[in-house]
Amino acid sequence: MRLGELVPAPVARLPWGVLLLLTAIGGFGTVVLFSAAGGSVTPWASSQALRFCIFMGMAITLSWVPARIWGAIALPGYAITLAALFGVEMLGAVRGGSQRWLELGPIRLQPSEFMKPFIVLAVAKFYDMLPPNETRKFGAIWPAAILIGLPAGLVMLQPDLGTALMITGGGVVVMFLAGIPLRLFIGGALGLALFIPLAVNYLLHDYQRNRVLIFLNPENDPLGTGYHISQSKIAIGSGGLLGKGFGNGSQVHLDYLPEGHTDFVFATMAEEWGLVGGLLLILAFMLLIRWGMNVAHRAPDRFSRLAAAGLATTIFYYVAINLMMVMGLAPVVGIPLPLVSFGGSAQMTTLICVGILMSINRASTRQPSW
Amino acid sequence: MSGPIKIVTEAAQSFSFSRRATMLGFMQAGVGVLLASRMAWIAVAENERYELLAESNRVNLTLLPPRRGWIVDRAGTPIANNRTDFRIDLIPERLTDAEGTLGKLSQLLALDTEALNRIRRDLQNARGFTPVPVAENLDWDRYASVVVRQPELPGVAPTQGYARNYPSGAAVAHLVGYVGGATADQYKETKDPLFLTPGFKLGKDGLEKALESTLRGAPGAKRVEVTARGRPVRDLETRRDVPGKTVRLTIDAGLQEYAARRLGNESGTVVVIDTLDGSILTMASMPAYDPNSFSDGISQIEWGMMSSDDHLPLTNKALQGLYPPGSTFKPATALAALRSGIDPDRTVYCGGGYQLGNRFFRCLGRHGSVNLHRAIARSCNTYFYTMGREVGMDAVAAAARELGLGAEYPLPFPSQRYGTIPDPAWKLRKYDQKWTPSDTLNAAIGQGYILTSPLQLAVQTSRIASGRRLVPRILADTPIVAPMLDVPPERMELIRSGMDEVVNGAGTAVRSRLQLDGIRMGGKTGTAQVRRIAGGARGGMNVPWKYRDHGLFIGFAPVEQPRYAVSVVIEHGMSGSGAAAPVARDVLTYLFDRQRALDSLAVLEENWGGDIRTRMAVKADAYRAARANPAPVDPAADTATPPSGNTE
């Protein structure tokens, strides 16, 4: 490799393709935020770009951590994060309201964000430790179920349906990849189909239930909860093939589209860049996720394989749930579009996932070509 | 490898992983394709729909009320037109200090407390950027005084619009009606946003109401880009309004105003019809309101004054007043006799009345031996009692209908009353009673159950004058339909010559002869009893106004070649010859010699205390003064039966 002769080996060994892809997505997100602020770097674009650089540095740093370390810290990290979740739950109860974050000086950290990668690592570690023979026994299921159920339940109490879904999804996908019998998943899916109507009626908060009901028929409540979905579809639909042009999106500039810089940033982008911009962004995310899945395929050991596939899937959940929500295919559950939506949490979680993936990638015998 | 794996090895596990991971990868790719196609569907297939929605989000349409079409007379003189209206609105969202601004405005515009309370109420109900009207119809000075101070009055929006203007004021009130703001119910019915636009007025009565769709036009629109909260960002293009169409009437505006003025302080109507084509040249009903002040919405005080006036200034009496025609009906009875083959030279002896069983029906005098001609000229009841009995009520009613009485005409007015031409079948239907000979006698002289409107009387006269079935028309572009009547022309001529005699011979209206060379007016007076007064006393000077007889007159001129037909009804005018015939004379004089008519009117108006506007103002002031400090008004005077007009 000629590049290796010109630059120091550690730099040359970085997965440049992925870094470029991430930078492209993050850069595009910054541009969209610049337009959403009416053509201004404040208040969103500049701080988003700064944070992106910081978290990219963090991801590169993580990529140098030896892959086996992740297996070692999986369970302790999970335990600490779970304790933090308990902590905020207690604090919230004490303060008499919902409390999702810990304030550590200037940074507000949501423990539930850290739980998204750690649930994957913890469940992967559990199946790594489990002797292959035990995989098809009941003992292979209930510890993982508890590992997943505790944090998901705590997050549901916050209440944060979207994050709870992602934690559950992250854990369950690792169980699936670990070889838990397929019929359990099919049975589980059937059970869920029966359980969801009950959950909607009895477990969800009023506003969450409303979102689900409005999702089924947004035109019923055009000025209430359905307003988000309607305005988002208007923004995407009116963008057409090529969009209205950079800085010309009326939906976000005239405040018709709520949260056009956070959860609904994709609609903001689609209005100005059209179908072309949207498809490019979807393609970029799909490439990123495919790269993650390829890292899993090539990973040297069972833990790395499970962890890599779970982390890639976590990123996939972000993108898929957000886009389905924005396009009116899923209820509004408050999942941001990673690297594009304004806000540090999803950005950080995504880049932690990418950092660990790069670390596992580095441990593979050879670089996956993609 | 098929079938369950009993013992799971690491190799098997690895294989299972890559199989499942691949499956997962495909599922993820599937979701990606789903998302991509969903987006393509929204952005391409449904693009048009969403573009419209985005545009309707972005653009706020402010309607500009259309200029109303003019109403002009036959010569094109405006009866209703538009003048520039200076108005002030408030934009609630931009108000910083509502009370302070209102205080300054009330100083500048001299707003009274009633108006201020209304504005406060509107402000509370107003949302966002919908303007609240403060004052309209301002004069330039007042308007300018606000415009100059606009920088210190945030939220105050002075605008120029158009307001309805009626140059002749009260003289045309009942004819054209008036305009006013739309009611909440009207908006609910139509959901037309124009109805909520400040400054928009629609027809409330008369032709303004009936011809609304023609006169309205299409609103213009100001397009403004607004944010989700309604804050205007910038002005986009503005579409001009399409003014309503001009409507040309058959009315002669000068004649209309003259007739209204000539009615003076009386409560009455004048209708003039062109006997060539049925055109209504004038249809005056007085007293009336000033439609100019009605457009702005009248005050409680004005309304109270109008609705308590026993001269009924709010009623169009030409179309809605119903009166027993009295002797003006006699030409119809004469026609019935002629159509039934009665010889016009046959004489009936009048000894002062007609004996029917044990009842004696009076005549106004002892006319001796009368034929048809003399009977009309002298208005001999005995002759018409006799003829009525001889030809029967069905024949009389048929002749009356042939002359257009009891009919509803195809005129563009919101309401017309068509009165009653009774016959035996009608009485059975209405009262479940048999028709009696005494009913026939009463009907034959235009009393009893007969009720007609002043317009119908004029139509009757125009048909007698022309011999044709004229249909009254008021829109200049309506087709003229006038076949011959079912009467030989020479027979109709007999009736006309009787009517000629009424005015120009030894008749009841000789004092109202036209003072014009070579032009004679033929006519027929009528005095209609308002209520039967015991002892046979007539309703003259010695009874309260509202029980006095109505004075009626129908006439046409010139006698030889009739061109104009007129009907005049003076409510409680006591007699047709004294009250109604002189008005008809002057109105017809106006048509032949304008200056002479205006000169004689000038003398009259001086005695009445000025023109219509002046007298109405004096009356309103007096009313207001009386309301302000209630003078000792005798309370018993006005508590009896409702004002008449429709009494049989």
UniProtKB/TrEMBL annotation, chain A:
Transmembrane segments annotated in the record for this chain: 16-37, 49-67, 73-94, 138-155, 161-178, 185-204, 273-293, 305-327, 339-360
Repeat is among the record's keywords: no
EC number per UniProt: 2.4.99.28
Membrane topology: Multi-pass membrane protein
Pathway(s) the chain acts in: Cell wall biogenesis; peptidoglycan biosynthesis
Location relative to the cell: Cell inner membrane; Membrane
InterPro entries referenced in this protein's UniProt entry, alphabetically: FtsW/RodA, RodA/MrdB
A Pfam family matched in the record: FTSW_RODA_SPOVE
Enzyme class, broadest EC rank: transferase
UniProtKB keywords: Cell inner membrane, Cell membrane, Cell shape, Cell wall biogenesis/degradation, Glycosyltransferase, Membrane, Peptidoglycan synthesis, Transferase, Transmembrane, Transmembrane helix
Catalytic activity: [GlcNAc-(1->4)-Mur2Ac(oyl-L-Ala-gamma-D-Glu-L-Lys-D-Ala-D-Ala)](n)-di-trans,octa-cis-undecaprenyl diphosphate + beta-D-GlcNAc-(1->4)-Mur2Ac(oyl-L-Ala-gamma-D-Glu-L-Lys-D-Ala-D-Ala)-di-trans,octa-cis-undecaprenyl diphosphate = [GlcNAc-(1->4)-Mur2Ac(oyl-L-Ala-gamma-D-Glu-L-Lys-D-Ala-D-Ala)](n+1)-di-trans,octa-cis-undecaprenyl diphosphate + di-trans,octa-cis-undecaprenyl diphosphate + H(+)
Role description: Peptidoglycan polymerase that is essential for cell wall elongation.
Family recorded in the similarity comment: Belongs to the SEDS family. MrdB/RodA subfamily.
HAMAP family xref list: PGT_RodA
Protein name: Peptidoglycan glycosyltransferase MrdB
TrEMBL record, chain B:
Domain Penicillin-binding protein transpeptidase: start-end pairs: 268-588
Keywords from the UniProt entry: Carboxypeptidase, Cell inner membrane, Cell membrane, Cell shape, Cell wall biogenesis/degradation, Hydrolase, Membrane, Peptidoglycan synthesis, Protease, Transmembrane, Transmembrane helix
UniProt enzyme class: hydrolase
Signal peptide boundaries: none
Annotated Pfam families: PBP_dimer, Transpeptidase
Listed NCBIfam families: pbp2_mrdA (TIGR03423)
Protein name per the record: Penicillin-binding protein 2
Organism: Sphingomonas qomolangmaensis
